[in-house]
Amino acid sequence: MKDRYPIFNQHKDLVYLDTAATSQTPDSVINALQNFSETAVGSPHRGLHQMSIKATEAYLASKLKVARFLNVPASHEVIYVKSTTEGMNLLSFSLRELVQREHNIVIPITSHHANILPWQRLAEGSGMELRYVEGDETPTYQHAYWEEAVDQNTDIVSVPWVTNGLGIDYCVHHIVDLAKANKAISIIDGAQIVAHQQIDLTHLDPDFFLFSGHKMYGPQGIGAVIGRRQLLEKMSPYQVGGDMIEFVTKKTATFAEIPKKFEAGTQNVLGAVGLGAAIDFLESIGMDKVSQHEAAILKYAFERFKAHPHITVYGPDSLSRRKGLIVFNINGVHPHDVASLLDDLNIAIRAGHHCCQPLNTYFQVPATCRISFGLYNSKADIDALMDGIAQVLEVFQIE
Amino acid sequence: MNRDLYNAVVMEHALNRKNHREIKNPTHIERGFNPSCGDDLTLMVRIADGKVEDAGYIGHGCAISKAAISIMIDQILGRSVEEAAEIAKIYLAMIRGEHPGDESIGDLVVFETLKNMPARVKCGTLGAHCVKLIADKVNQEN
Ligand SMILES: Cc1ncc(COP(=O)(O)O)c(C=O)c1O
Fold first, then answer.
1. Ligand 1 probe mutation, A82, A84, A92, most atoms within 8 A of CB
2. Is the CB of B17 inside 8 Å of chain A's CB atoms?
3. Domain span including residue B90
4. ipTM reported for the complex, 2 dp
5. Architecture of domain A28-284 in CATH?
6. C-alpha angle with apex A371: A163 to A195, nearest 5 degrees?
7. What is the pLDDT of residues A347-364, one digit of tens each?
8. How far apart are CA A27 and CA A5, in angstroms?
């Protein structure tokens, strides 16, 4: 697979273990971006000329790919945004008229800041309670913890399908069902799942599903909010300006239909084209193969780590609840030192708080290392990492 | 190479707890925090007659942040507050690439390569910022 990613021609020895932050770009996506830039640049939805029409077609074709790839039900609409972060900000702003004072919002402690700060702001502005589910970091899913947090007064349940700070795979269908039973709006942060397994949103039927293109082999700057039309209709637009209007007078405006109501201004057509190409790329491999490939590397790395006397692995002590990444520490060595020393060996890992400070506080570990996997990784990368870790231990005089 | 920074002098200070201790009757305490990685070091000094009589640090951080604050402590011990402030100033200028490292800052010159390691500058300058803030406070008091 490495040969499909031109970055590895430039950096022959690169061992890239930071796909959870951003993935590398395959040749077909790069080609699609270049091809579009050379043949079809125009403002979508606006002009009457050929270039504008081509851009509009490319934009809509990309959305159809997303809808097919995730099996988006007819009840839902695909809205393009910059990223998962922007999508969460959109939701927390535009849902504010659909929630009630003194009701609550439920998120897990393992959430990315993108699934925390927007809700903090909504809670503060609307007099709601922000509740954290804690304790469900065990080898099996603990529905009881969720049942304890979600009640009749829960208006929103927002959960990462896979947490970037631990690699836990939440059983989101249970959580969506629980939200439904309590008439709460269910939101799934799909950032760490889309590139890793087949997703069927018709089957799962959450109210909202969000993801970012740059974590699934697409370009940075494009992502999506997939939302239930019934709710989107009741929500006010997040940004206002061009393209999202119906009629504008000096003092008033009426808004366009969904999804345009939520897509103000000139959209990122190039990003949409790249995202579409990334979906084509994943589909050409097959999501089952993608999952198998990553599961094999995860298992290999997890077992090597667990057997290592100087490595502490965080999160569930079982593979069945893990996906795509491992968060760990080398005992006695700060993660930044680990990352800097591995960088000398062209091994790229993430070190720090991974945008999950409440989780770090909860575990009382200020910082950790994280490795995460993509299609270009192989067991040889894990072997290189283990050799690198041996060198780190040497520098720190740990035997 | 990043590894060059993890040399004998730095590792000696990072692993050795000589200056990693609470001091008695500190007159000034300054906490330095690096939110991106969780380095959290507190510099404690006792100033008497305008001189740094004792200094130590507590907290946790990476090897670079700990070694830098520890070597900084060695450099400022026994010096006047003005001299300590000057050392911190030269050190910070060195890391910005504006001043060559020289003997005026002693072993702190080992951190000169930080000017080429933007990702680690915050680690290496935590202690120097604490010294600067304490010196500013002392000046305000006077
Ligand atoms: C679980 C999760 N949610 C949200 C985000 C935010 O994604 P983005 O930075 O693309 O908005 C990330 C990525 O860091 C993530 O891992």
1. A84
2. no
3. 3-141
4. 0.89
5. 3-Layer(aba) Sandwich (3.40)
6. 55
7. 999 998 888 888 888 888
8. 6
